[in-house]
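[job 4417] fold queue: 2 targets
>>> target A
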Amino acid sequence: MHTVLVRPLVTEKMTGVSEKATKNPKYGFIVDINANKIEIARAIKTKFDVDVIDVNTIRYKGKTRTQFTKRGRFSGKTAKFKKAIVTVKEGQSIDIFGEV
């Protein structure tokens, strides 16, 4: 069994989205690349004990990066990842920093 939730997504944009959503709060997570929306909703429900209304997912491809060194050019790829934006029921919230 793979771990569905990798880590919470704490960025300026995600913080702004969660603050603007007054009715149904939204939270962002980096999730396993092979996880589907049903698995993500179940993982959020069991870990944070909230009711999930909606899950939107976005897949990102790895970018090609090139670095020039004394020995020549070195190229590689960044990791691919999947992002999930989860909408929870009105009046409920997820304490992302409670585990720290």
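>>> target B
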Amino acid sequence: MKKMAVTLHKDELERLCQIMADGDKDGALLFVREVLEEKVKANELPHCVPFYDVGYNPGQADSFKKNS
């Protein structure tokens, strides 16, 4: 897996700081599952395709998304 940087929105950062201040292990696991897991999955999706790739179609990235 490649390296990645994670950007947290203000509310996510506040939530993480509160979890760390409280030492909330269950909250930490929930944060990882709800916030970080989604960001990692989104990072693994294809982001660009060379213009010469004739096999590309506009909805191609949708096939990599998790069906909810």
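[job 4417] complete. Note on B: The CA atoms of residues 27 and 33 lie 10 Å apart.
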